[in-house]
Specification:
The structure is a single chain. The chain is about 35% helix and about 15% strand. The chain has a domain at about 10-230 and about 365-470: Glycosidases (TIM Barrel), CATH 3.20.20.80. The chain has helices spanning about 25-30, 40-45, 65-75, 90, 100-115, 135, 145-160, 175-180, 195-220, 245-270, 290-295, 355-370, 395-415, 455-470; strands spanning about 10, 20, 80-85, 120-125, 165-170, 225-230, 235, 300-305, 310-315, 325-330, 335-340, 375-380, 420-425, 445, 450-455, 470. With about 475 residues, the chain is α/β, with parallel strands linked by helices. The chain starts with 10 loop residues before the first strand and ends in a 9-residue tail after the last strand. An 8-stranded parallel β-barrel has the order 2-3-4-5-6-8-12-13, surrounded by 6 helices. A 4-stranded mixed β-sheet has the order 7-9-11-10, covered by helices on one side. Strands 1-16 form a two-stranded antiparallel ribbon. Helix 3 (about 65-75) packs parallel to helix 5, helix 7 packs parallel to helix 9 (about 195-220) and helix 12 (about 355-370) runs parallel beside helix 13. Its EC number is 3.2.1.21. Keywords: Carbohydrate metabolism, Cellulose degradation, Glycosidase, Hydrolase, Polysaccharide degradation. It catalyses: Hydrolysis of terminal, non-reducing beta-D-glucosyl residues with release of beta-D-glucose.
């Protein structure tokens, strides 16, 4: 970045801000048959032909199960103070419940001791999508019993590891589990049933509430929260001029916001499902037992925020709905469409790059839940990374992405958002779910054939931000 002209002053972050990197067990650990681990739904899904690009699986992934000291050294070398990782439920309870696998707990004790020796604080996610297959065979998250089994698992882990973990996250992105895994079937367990997805939604939330209580009972004083992927909904400024559709656009905005954000955020914060959510995604009343919503909405100590891109709506052209990638918005009259604004850059995932959306989201959350600490638990981008002839990975696209988004976070903090930390996604290139190993999100390159780790240029940029607790001024021009 030294060849870029800059102006202005660095944007500082609050004192005590946590700088970290994030990973997830199935994406990095490998060792799927080691030391008594049971199979998860992702083992089953990834081994089903046609479900994951190239037939990739997480069988080896980054082999972090064996290489965690090296990964902890990477964190220390970057000067990061925090590591967000997930605990593999099937390592602890191979059958989801019943017989405890002590070797699984011992692995995480060793990982946590290694982090502690390097001065790195731990934020542990209890469920990052790898449900034990044995529980799926008994109904999975569509069954209320799974919420109780999750609470049992959470309590056992908190009792064993509570002296080593400062921050607990119950669930990661439950919306993705319900929607991708049970409504459209592109993630494990690969189901396509609206009624099942609605049941899964409620039981995930119930699992969060029960699990949070179990952690607090086993580890008094623990900080407990949940991580949600949240999506600002933007409406085109000129949309109301088409087809007299101002009312349809506002209705569509409310529905989209309830679908993407409110369906999990409102039960957690306010103890109710959103008024404007489509009927198909709201759990039916017979699933919601007395006391459920009180359990779900028990106060949390922080909210984890995963942000990648906003959704954009506008009034569509009824004669040409596919122009500019327009997609009719289901269930809304008035030709309202999702669309991709012209001229916006994208990542190799096809996701729009919009740091202002992150600022907007943080300010909205600060208004909805005043005083609640917010952690960015995921933010990052895939890039077309490669090792050049000098053995380096110069991922300038990722540096630009991080620079813009970190500036948005700093601006939100300056404007009153209670920001407490930022975990970049991800520490390592890893198994990117249904994309397999095609998409690289890491600030450290992984040669999957040799397991060699190569810090990318973005890791040096991120380390500088962490060291300074400030993001440098945005450049007047970016390198090309």
């Amino acid at each position: 970045m030294s060849n870029v002209t800059s102006s202005g002053e660095p944007l500082a972050f609050p004192a005590g801000f946590t700088w970290g990197a994030a990973t997830a067990a199935y994406q990095i650990e490998g060792a799927v048959n080691a030391d008594g681990r049971g199979p998860s739904v992702w083992d089953t899904f990834s081994r089903t032909p046609g479900k994951v690009r190239g037939g990739d699986t997480g069988d080896i992934a980054c082999d972090s199960y064996h290489r965690y000291p090296e990964d902890a050294d990477l964190l220390r070398s970057l000067g990061l103070s925090g590591y967000r990782f997930s605990i593999s439920w099937p390592r602890i309870f191979p059958d989801g419940a019943g017989q405890l696998n002590q070797a699984g707990l011992d692995y995480y004790k060793s990982l946590l001791d290694t982090l502690g020796e390097r001065g790195i604080s731990a934020a542990a996610t209890l469920f990052h999508w790898d449900l034990p297959q044995a529980l799926q065979d008994r109904g999975g998250w569509a069954s209320r019993d799974t919420a109780y089994r999750f609470a049992d698992y959470a309590g056992v882990v908190a009792e064993a590891l509570g002296d080593r973990i400062i921050r607990w996250i119950t669930l990661n992105e439950p919306l993705v589990v319900a929607h991708n895994g049970h409504r459209i079937g592109v993630h494990a367990p690969g189901l396509t049933d609206d009624a099942v997805a609605a049941a899964v939604t409620h039981h995930l939330l119930l699992g969060h509430g029960l699990g949070a209580a179990a952690v607090r009972a086993a580890a008094p004083g623990a900080e407990v929260g949940i991580t949600l992927n949240l999506t600002p909904v933007r409406v085109a400024a000129d949309g109301s001029a088409l087809n007299g559709s101002a009312q349809a656009l506002e209705r569509a905005r409310l529905v989209a916001d309830a679908t993407h954000n409110g369906i999990f955020l409102e039960p957690v914060l306010f103890g109710s499902y959103p008024e404007h959510a489509p009927a198909a995604i709201v759990p039916p009343a017979e699933l919601i037992k007395d006391g459920d919503l009180e359990t779900i909405s028990a106060p949390i100590d922080f909210l984890g925020v995963n942000y990648y891109q906003p959704e954009h709506l506008r009034a569509g052209d009824p004669d040409n709905l596919l122009r500019n990638e327009e997609r009719p918005m289901a269930g809304i009259d008035g030709h309202v469409v999702n669309y991709s604004p012209e001229g916006m850059e994208r990542t190799p995932m096809g996701w729009l790059i919009d740091p202002d959306g992150l600022y907007e989201l943080l300010m909205r959350l600060s208004a909805d839940a005043p005083g609640l600490p917010l952690y960015i638990t995921e933010n990052g981008c895939a890039a077309e990374d490669y090792v050049d002839p000098n053995g380096e990975v110069n991922d300038l696209e990722r540096i630009k992405f991080l620079h813009l988004h970190l500036a948005a976070v700093a601006r939100a903090a300056s404007d009153g958002a209670r920001l407490a930390g930022y975990y970049v996604w991800s520490l390592l290139d890893n198994f990117e779910w249904s994309y397999g190993y095609q998409k690289r999100f890491g600030i450290v390159y992984v040669d999957f054939a040799t397991q060699r780790r190569i810090p990318k240029a973005s890791s040096a940029f991120f380390a500088r931000v962490a060291s300074d607790n400030a993001v440098p001024p945005l450049p007047a021009a970016w390198p090309v």
